[in-house]
From TrEMBL, chains A, B, C, D:
Protein name per UniProt: Dehydrogenase
One Pfam family, short name: GFO_IDH_MocA
Segments forming domain Gfo/Idh/MocA-like oxidoreductase N-terminal: 2-121
Sequence ranges assigned to domain GFO/IDH/MocA-like oxidoreductase in this UniProt record: 129-238
InterPro entries, A to Z: Gfo/Idh/MocA-like_OxRdtase_N, Gfo/Idh/MocA_Oxidoreductases, GFO_IDH_MocA-like_dom, NAD(P)-bd_dom_sf
Length: 342, 342, 342, 342
């Protein structure tokens, strides 16, 4: 039985608490929040959990084996470092840290101590992303051409992070998970419509090692909500519409076949293929519960999490590069795969 | 009665021929096409039109006052120049020319001779774009934040132009028409999935003089067709879905109000507004017919066309800049408003 | 402070309990359920509520002023009668009773004792239905032509009631509320696809006193979920799509104008009107909470509930007539407005 | 080479003329129309066709082997009879005749003379209906539960026929073609919203010999256009949305399995199955061209048309029964399969 403390009971913490409470081989021992109101809500819902006004108390509690961090990004590093130093396994909300140096330190600390470090990129645990990963791994799509995401809505304007750190972060984790091909360069453009505030809309292009590209369109100031990802390969193409109630993933047997005409050097022959469409049934398992269950299994069996510190670091590096490129109006920022891999 | 010759009877020429045949004060005198098969089709449809294997014959015909050019882009300049030299009014398919120097020459020739020069940016004459222009001109949207377009499908791979020249060209004309604010810089990213072929997918950001941005996403290799444009302002936001059968334009009374909290300097207060949605009735007039009617009126009354050579040139300049930026993986290309205006 | 007991903690009871717990001037005193498991769940969620294995205990409790009944339909009458006899106000799940005689008795008992009797036709309290009522009351739609509802999905097969009592019951309450015109005849057709089980799909036509008709299509065995109602009038037409996330109500300025040609007696001139569409903003208030709040207000101020016993009785009478007609394969069943009004 | 004359060049005649002109082994010899304007339009489009002001002239022309009738319903019988008497093959627009007696006479005449008689139920030749027929014939759907159609829009009010004869006629032909199970009874309800005019909205239930039912909802006075048919079987369910641009047919692996619990006689166990969805690629062949090609093949090879006179008669019998039931507000009308089969 793994004892867990949830740190932060604001927007996301309640989901983690609920799922840890339902996860097998796991006990929700404590909840920490600096706000008395948050703590009161937690107590009403979990009468048996210890309520901590200061997260540091959790680290002294011998019944607590693991810490789940759902606090603002700027506090992730401090709390995660203290937890690892205290010998606790850590689940940390995405993005992992404010910068990549912090992420590298946390990875090293966890490795040296043999502790589990999982970054909460929840979408990776959704049945839609799992199905995409499965189809791509089975080579059903063929060689991947691109990943193209539109993630827009009238959303909460964040004060401390821009829209890339808030929305594109999802796609960056998903595309590393499903395509497993790091970017060699990133170009991003964006704008803030409020003087002095972080950018609220952006377009990002990632050039991947495999030759594929990823296009991301994120926006907090759109009149309609769109959550749509296209993944196209030589054989098949996927449309993932996360707002569809039942058929979130559609697989299209469509594409082009390109052949050079041997007779005519300048002539390119393109033939189009339009076949069936297929929407596989998706599991209705809740992603957060899948994730907390995976976290506990990793702790017990010493497994590496699917969304481990390395994935978390990769995402932070891409966020840094995209933000840097955005400040130069699209000037591409090269990423060094060597350094990342070390 | 204005006599018109249509040059090129391939994909687009038949639409122009049909609309000129239906336009008042206008007579379809001749159709030229280098292919005997194209000419035969034209003759079957228009038994009274002269059929010309060589477009040059049209310039010697005293009954022909105007030339409509629907040939490949690389031939636009030569034909338009010859027509203007021969004192004929010109309607030329978009994009106007292969490069901006050619466009400038044509503008100058038309001005010196007092001839009408209209670039066939058909979308500008659609009832959806006219309604957007009308709403923006009446300040219903307030100050414009952005223009964001997705224009993707499984489309014909062009051999001589990339996807920007083929698809983004529409948005560039539309946004200049409705926003009337030239870009100061353009960043574009794109890729070709066929070695040696032009780019088939691209993302473009335009930084406009007004402070607004435009984001364009164009793609010939998408499993689904999307034609969706968002235009957001301080007061209202528009979604234009051109594939909707009846409600193409939806106006949302949505947005955010941002105010700095006087007490707390770092605190930004955002309030969200979610009001009614409204879909104005659109005229069912056919855009091409609206355009040919406008062309004849401009000739008769000496008016400047809505899509005149200057708009055509602006679009070509933006296409050049976007293509240049794309070859540098998003490195921004500055545009000099001075030079453009000269 | 009105003390409330919720009887039945299965599918719907938890919603009522939650809303009564959040309603002002009201206290959730007790929850009764015959199943120990249901009672345990209730206790976990509401540690301060009394847990009753037998609902009769609630009637002896002086702190309980009102009873909310969320048990199977066949038990409604017995529990409601006992509650009214014990001087308690009653909120009863829809349909009100198994037959109209029982409904008439409950109405009479409540009236004699001056007690509030509300039938839980929740949809009537939704912002979509309230908006429709408001538009129709303001004569925005003109004279009503028809109400046409499609309410289908792959649904829970009920054992004790047919699909009309389960799904059409919603439309019957809504249309009486918004159109306020009782039917003079009902014709219904339906079928059971399981030998011996109640009908799982049906089509119902109601001929209303006003001259309008209502068409209802209900089905438990459909591959897709549809919740769509059309209400058409001489001036405007409404489409209510309850599955739309944001624009549930759309008002179309569409219709026909019909005039007899004075010259030609057999000639009917029809002109079509296609104008704007408008989607009014809807309140996001939760219907059940609106209803529980209304129930408490009715008790305190002696008001007649919007969904009172008379509406509940009307609905049961229509359900009876529809079921009778269905057993005769559409043979129309006349309803006597006189008797209903008595 | 079969010579064809098209009689009637109003709304539908031009489609038939165009398709006969494109059909192999067939020549469009003549077009007849009583209106000079219609004839002039025909002549402009088909300069080589003979233009006849009186359709009777076509019957004397030895180059004309077949007559295609696209005139108002009330004239179908007279023209078809004269054509068959003159030894001509006949294609007649749907509905076949004004009443079933006329239809029986035409069938008999064609049989006695060995002439081809095809009723133009175009939808039967569409790739969507062909795919449904194919899936059902292959027993992919299992035993059929029902056919449920919604066919509504703001449509042309007809003066001589009601909405059943105009819109439900499509479904009646389709369902006989794909289910091949005649109705034993029909119940219909409908209303006219214009005094003295034919009914403009109706709901029809057909009880089929196989035990399945068909529900049809037709309406000329709806604010939105819907063309959606559900066909559900024990194994799979189809949704056919004819307004979808690309995936018109969707096959859902969904349903219920019903088993009686042996222990508990009153207990019905229902298990739900939710599997994949699949949208087969459909041919883009034009239905009318498929039909005219089939008509010519039937003439040349002596085959029985898919939509022969018997199908046309069945549809007229169902239209008569539905109209009769509608006049009795849903009172079911029995159909005698014996008589129909004789």
């Amino acid at each position: 039985m793994i004892g867990v403390a949830v740190i932060g009971y604001g927007y996301w913490g309640p989901n983690l608490a609920r799922c840890f409470a339902e996860t097998d081989d796991c006990r929700l021992v404590a909840i920490a929040d600096s706000s008395p109101a948050g703590l009161a809500r937690a107590g009403k819902r979990y009468p048996h959990a210890r309520l901590l006004a200061d997260w540091r108390e959790a680290l002294a509690d011998p019944e607590i084996d693991a810490i789940a961090i759902a606090t603002p990004v700027r506090t992730h590093y401090e709390i995660a470092r203290a937890a690892l130093q205290a010998g606790r396994h850590v689940l940390v909300e995405k993005p992992m840290t404010e910068n990549s140096d912090q992420a590298r330190q946390l990875i090293e600390m966890a490795e040296q101590r043999g502790l589990t470090l999982l970054v909460d990129h929840t979408f990776v645990y959704s049945s839609a992303v799992q199905k995409m990963k499965e189809l791509i791994a089975a080579d059903d799509l063929g060689q991947i051409y691109y990943y193209d995401s539109t993630r827009i809505n009238l959303g909460l304007f964040q004060r401390d992070v821009n829209v890339i750190w808030d929305l594109a972060v999802h796609d960056l984790a998903i595309l590393q998970h499903v395509l497993d091909s790091p970017p060699t360069a990133i170009s991003a453009n964006g704008i803030s419509h409020v003087r002095g505030a972080p950018e609220n809309m952006a377009q990002i292009t990632l050039y991947l090692e495999s030759g594929a590209v990823a296009h991301l369109n994120v926006n907090w100031l759109a009149p309609v909500k769109v959550r749509r990802v296209l993944v196209a390969g030589t054989r098949k193409m996927i449309v993932w519409d996360d707002l569809e109630p039942s058929e979130k993933i559609k697989v299209y047997d469509r594409g082009v076949s390109l052949t050079a005409d041997p007779e005519e050097i300048y002539q390119m022959l393109v033939s189009y293929r339009i076949g069936d469409m297929w929407a596989p049934r998706l599991s209705t398992a809740e992603p957060v519960l899948t994730e907390t269950t995976h976290f506990i299994a990793c702790i017990k069996d010493g497994l590496t999490p699917i969304t481990d510190g390395r994935l978390g670091l990769q995402v932070v590096e891409m966020l840094e590069a995209a933000t840097r490129s955005m400040s130069m109006r699209g000037h591409p920022v090269e990423l060094n795969p060597q350094r990342r891999a070390s």
